[in-house]
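Revision sheet: structure tokens.
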Amino acid sequence: MKHLAAHLPWPRIKALAQTNTWALLPIGSTEAHGPHLPLNVDVVIAQEVCSRVSSSFDTVEFPPVTYSLTDFAAPFAGTVSVPAETAKAMLVAVLRGIGHAGFGRICVVNHHLEPAHFKVVHAAALEAASPTLRVVVPDHRRKPTGPLLGHEFMHGGSHAGSYETSLMLAAAPHLVDERARLALPPLSVDLPAAIKAGATNFLEAGGPDAYFGAPADASVAEGNRLFELITIATLDAMNAR
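Predicted:
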């Protein structure tokens, strides 16, 4: 069962913390996701994963972190990037604040996949953790989950293409501009390879509209399949000792 921390009074939060309830912290970004998706894609997906995880655990979901390091989308209007050290310091403080409320277990559910940002998330979790606070950071980019998410996810960059658009169709179809989505041609760019070759933003990587892959191929069914895999990976991380 999911409890939304923002909607509860403090005595209820205290009572839930005392029962060793898992705290969930969804993390995303505010950045361009093609001409067919909103700026809050990563936040919406992270919150949906939290909701699906909550069908297996009694959880308290804290308000999401909506700003972080997002340099690759910086050339596009609406993107707000936070310096790495600032993002890390804020996240450490948030995690410690949740621990101060009495929670001993926090699962950080992150769906902003920019490598430098994910590095910040892992570093912040390590710094915030203590003998009385366990901080888990599931990372579905890694095996065995990553390859199951499809070729586009592993080689196309997974940014606003079929992967993320399918997730959005499953989680928040009202936020997807269908006319724009269906008009977008496939953009076959190996974003990870472009990054390794020196690209520092989506424009340099060959994505002039801030998307990669094939948004028109997305579907609700594929989105639910992807959510199931990400949810399983998240639960496995929470259950690990």
